[in-house]
Each structure stands twice: as structure tokens, then as C-alpha cells.
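Appendix B, Record 12. Input sequence as logged:
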Amino acid sequence: MRQTLSDRPPPSLGRALLRRVPLFGALAGIALAAWLVAVNDVGAVAAAFGRVGVLGLAAVVLVRVGIILLCGIAWAQVTAGAAVGTGPFLLLRFVREGVNVLLPVASVGGDVLGGRLLTFWGVSGAVAAAGIIVDMFFQVAALALFSLAGVLLLGQLEGEPAAQLAAWCAKGLGVSALVLAGFFAVQRFGGAGALERRIAALGRRFVREASPTESARPGVQAALDAMWERRRWWPLSQGALLHVAAWFLGALEIWIALRCMGFEVTVTEAIVLESLSQAIKSAAFPVPSGLGVQEGGFVLLGGVFGIDADAALALSLVKRVPDVVLGLPSLIAWQMIEGRRHLLAPGRSGP
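Logged structural output:
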């Protein structure tokens, strides 16, 4: 007998609160952003943002396009069993990014959606789920390496504030290394833990979007094993290196923006600012798009390099311009993909 919505038991209090974590995070982020604006000179922030100019903003947007394309290619490289070409991965990578930066979801919401949409191209649910898991692992691992480079460069600077910040960040990277090791172990060796059950649930969720013959195809753990085969070391290495390159390319956004504002920032300083601000933003993943956290991170880090709070807030605004310019079209593309899937669904007879 089919269960109806009215027959289903209500979600537990813990699960209900968990679902509202992005909402709570968004409210906290808005409050932090409002406080940062209130304690600083709004006019000075606007003036610093204005100095970037249209050409500077266009350059930052183009850099972001390059970053997303690199990440899309990396996703395609690591996803074994998805014989659909690179095109869908590039398109869906923009969708993943748009959802993560513009919608009130935790920072992995767009990634889960991207894996689900990949099944619309005939990719099995298990392969789509496993591909997202491996791609996210490489993305986070590359961020850890990028952040380590930032910490090492920061440690070379003179002054007590830089030394204290470097020590604090190094401790955070130690914790991240343990988390990454656990994430990798679950993928490679499986287990009966909660994370593996979540992975299996993710695969079943994608299966519902795939073809009727999906049940005969390998499960998520089998797909993960296939992706981690030794003979695939070269595609996996390419995926990892592309993610590393994408993170480093992000420092170019910082360099362009600060140069346009009149700061004589070096490439090394831009790498430190980008790497550590991204690490801070990643640590606050329940906050949608790192709202408020990104701004606070730039204010904190900018002080080490003599960048005043007004310019740091303007820098954060510049970094959010590509979020909107590229995010809005990607959300429209998502709806078009969903609409096309709905119209082509078998047995559809009405609007």
C-alpha cells in the first residue's frame, strides 16, 4: 500500500532543526554583514568599490568564468562511467555555483543538485552520486593545499599579527587534514558509519531520476571503487590539479580588485588573502554563500596587509559581483533543464 503524505510520521525535532541550519546561518550572516556595514563608513566603501570600475569588474567576472570552467573539466575527468562528454559538466558546474551562492542552502546544496541533474543526460544515479563525492573531495583537498600555501607565505611576513594568524590557521588546517582523511577512507573502504549511509541515500535519491533499468546497475560504493581504480590515476590527477589551479586563479580576482582600488598588492599577498578568506568561508559552510563571514574575513586579513576595513568590504562586494552576474543565468538554465525534463517525461498528457 502506497504511503501518503498524511500517513508519514512527522520529522524529529533534531531533523527539523537540521533542515533549518541554512536559514539560521543566513540570518546570522545577515546580522554580521549589517554590523560590519554599521560600524564602517558606507560612503568610503562605495567609493572604494567605484574605483574598481566597469572594466575591473568585467575582468573579475571573466576570471570567475575561467575558474568555473576548470572545475567543470575537473568534474568530468574524475567521473568514470559518464560517457556524455564534457559539455553537461561545464553547464551543470555553473548551475552548482549559482545555487550555492544565491540560494539559501548550505554550501553543498548546489553540488547535490548538480549530481541529480547529471542523471538527466542518462548517467546512472550511482555514478552521478559517486562523481559528486569524488569531485567534492578533490575540491576540498585542493582548498586545503591552497590554504597551506597561504599559511606558509603568511609565515614569511614580519610582525606579530601575521605570526599569530598563521599559527591559528595552521591549527585549523590540521583539523581539516583529519576530516579529509576520514572522508577518503569512507570512499575507499566503506564501512557502517553514518557517512556511508548518507552516501547510499544520496545514490538512491539520484536513482529515482534515472532510467527504469537503474536497479540493475552498480551501487554507489561500486561506482566509487571504479573511480578510484589505479589505472585511472591520470584522470584523477588531472581533476585534482585542475582544482588546485582553479583555487590559485581565484587570487587573480583579489589582485585585480585591489590594484584598481590603488593598492600595490603583490601576487603573494593576493594568494594569502584569497586562500585564507576561502578557508574561513569554507569553515562556515552552513552560512549560505558565506554571507557576512566573507566580509569579516577580508576585514580581518586586510588589516595584516594595511588594507583598511572600508576597502576590505569593497573587495568583498567585488567578489560577489560574479556571483550575481553568473549566478542568475545559471539559475535560469537550471529551470530550463527541469522544464525540458518535465516536458519530455514519458506518459505526459497535460500541461
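The longest helix spans residues 42-78.
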